[in-house]
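2024-03-11 09:14:02 INFO worker-7 job=invfold-0412 stage=load source=structure_tokens
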């Protein structure tokens, strides 16, 4: 695996809110080799709690023998601002402060994430990206970037995402933040603050990531006599503990707020007008059982992005299907690229 690399922006970034975040550090990884024509670049935008190691969190789609094989492609994945995986976030000391900002970390929007990664693209000297791909939060970032830089991206692939974060999605995020805020340790501003709240938040989020059918299939209680300690309860506890072990409450709050800011139509008239600015050949993928980003949201994208192709995956995994159904995604990509698979 390629080592994590860092780009330091000493002047920082002026955020969409008007605040300045400085200095700024962007953590990223690359896989594979840039070819002589420099036309085999795939840029991956990751989801809420992921990191720059796309080969680690999207196996089956990225990796040796997978559709996006580093033997063929030069793959770039950068960690987003606000995260806890190397890029500047709530646990990173900034400015003249000797201590991290924790809960005082400023609001960063989807457009701020794009600004940071646009600076990285320019630093890497990548003038043309063959494919920009992302799901969920990563899809929101990819859409915004493709609108801002229509001449850079030849292909755009977005999965389980939307043009504007919905009231439903914002409500789920607020419910999770309330769980974190209810943990008194969050307000103390320490590296381990808010862990109990984060566990509860993750358990809440999981209900929007999966589906009724998925829980029925995997978490049904085999013992009809059981009165407590149900399998589904243990599953929620386990998933909460897993996130606490690898993520941070302050980053979780910061990035959920980032997701809430997503609205491609802001300052551009409306959503349809904004989406019509995309020039990349686009594939929009939805998941039949996704209750967080339902197919109607992807259908809207496909209607307004010029020439976009649309496909709906039949899956019982809900929103998480974009990470799990790599076989179906591969088939859709093979069909999508047939006319233009030149790199």
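2024-03-11 09:14:09 INFO worker-7 stage=emit residues=343
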């Amino acid at each position: 695996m390629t080592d994590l690399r860092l780009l330091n922006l000493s002047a920082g970034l002026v955020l969409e809110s008007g605040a300045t975040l400085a200095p700024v550090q962007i953590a990223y990884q690359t896989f594979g080799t840039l070819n002589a024509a420099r036309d085999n670049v795939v840029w991956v935008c990751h989801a809420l709690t992921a990191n720059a190691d796309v080969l680690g969190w999207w196996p089956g789609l990225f990796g040796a023998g997978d559709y996006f094989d580093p033997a063929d492609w030069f793959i770039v994945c950068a960690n987003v601002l606000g995260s806890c995986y190397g890029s500047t976030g709530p646990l990173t000391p900034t400015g003249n402060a000797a201590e991290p900002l924790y809960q005082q970390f400023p609001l960063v929007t989807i457009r701020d994430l794009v600004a940071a990664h646009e600076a990285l693209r320019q630093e890497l000297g990548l003038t043309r990206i063959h494919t920009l791909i992302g799901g969920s939060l990563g899809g929101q970032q990819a859409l915004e970037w493709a609108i801002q830089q229509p001449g850079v991206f030849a292909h755009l692939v977005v999965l389980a995402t939307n043009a504007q974060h919905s009231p439903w999605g914002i409500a789920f995020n607020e419910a999770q933040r309330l769980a974190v805020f209810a943990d008194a340790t969050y307000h103390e501003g320490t590296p381990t603050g808010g862990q109990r709240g984060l566990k509860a938040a993750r358990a809440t989020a999981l209900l929007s990531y999966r589906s009724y059918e998925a829980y029925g299939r995997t978490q049904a209680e085999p013992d009809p006599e059981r009165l407590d300690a149900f399998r589904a309860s243990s599953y929620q506890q386990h998933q909460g503990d897993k996130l606490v072990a690898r993520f941070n409450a302050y980053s979780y709050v910061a990035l959920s707020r980032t997701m809430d800011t997503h609205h491609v139509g802001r300052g551009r008239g409306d959503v349809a007008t904004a989406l019509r600015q995309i020039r990349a050949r686009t594939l929009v993928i939805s998941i039949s059982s996704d209750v967080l980003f339902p197919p109607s949201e992807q259908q809207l994208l496909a209607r307004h992005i010029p020439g976009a192709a649309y496909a709906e995956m039949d899956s019982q995994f809900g929103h998480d299907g974009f990470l799990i159904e790599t076989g179906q995604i591969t088939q859709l990509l093979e069909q999508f690229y047939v006319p233009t698979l030149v790199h």
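2024-03-11 09:14:09 INFO worker-7 stage=report msg="The longest helix spans residues 231-246."
2024-03-11 09:14:10 INFO worker-7 job finished
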